[in-house]
Amino acid sequence: MNTFAHDSTRIALVTGAAQGIGLSSAIALLRAGHHVVLSDRQPIDLAIVPAELRARASALVLDVADPAACADAQARIERELAPVTLLVNNAGISPKRPDGRSSGVLEVTADEWARVLEVNLTSVLRLCQTFLPGMQAQRHGRIVNVASLAGRTKSLVAGPSYMAAKAGVIGLTRAIAGEMGPHGITANCVAPGRILTEMAMQAGPEVNERYAAQIPVRRLGTPDEVGAAIAFLCSDAAGFVNGAIIDINGGFYMP
Fold it and tell me: Could you tell me the pTM of the whole model?
């Protein structure tokens, strides 16, 4: 178990930070000068963080679907660091069938539906409820929720449970933004399209090649591109950005 260090006034928590968008977001926030707690369901080896940034990085095992674990995480971070003021809700799942495809409306099971909504949507509310009081006390906070292109329009690859959850994340973010703005707290979404992550690779190379051919920039996005947008939304410079959705999809979807 990693010991936290007391060397930053802005504490960030990033969920699902072992890889992909979560890891890139954590590194971008570290480069911005924050102390970042990287959390995931499995232990994180901080060797994945560039050596020059590790002094301000901490690792924490956290299952966002476990209410007790979320409460314990909040207590530990406040005890060993300080209240979280930057919260990036990135953890998510997108179940696939053995052939790499998502279940259709008539195929999705009650268990899959409940699990996806629990991890991808309910946990966002849970973590916001956990850390918002500390932000209110400081009169400062940044919440960035990772939604998806699948929550904005019909997805070519995601299933109904994932689409519904990510659409819900967008609605929840707007509710938080409206209620918490007077407390100096902003809440925004990023809505990535097809990004080169392990989750995207589940669909197989042919699916991704066909997808890339339909994107105006003719490629998939990178986790670093999403992480940069998240770091901006966490910054002081983004103080007047509230309730927004930043679409990061190469022009595939233009609302």
Answer: 0.93
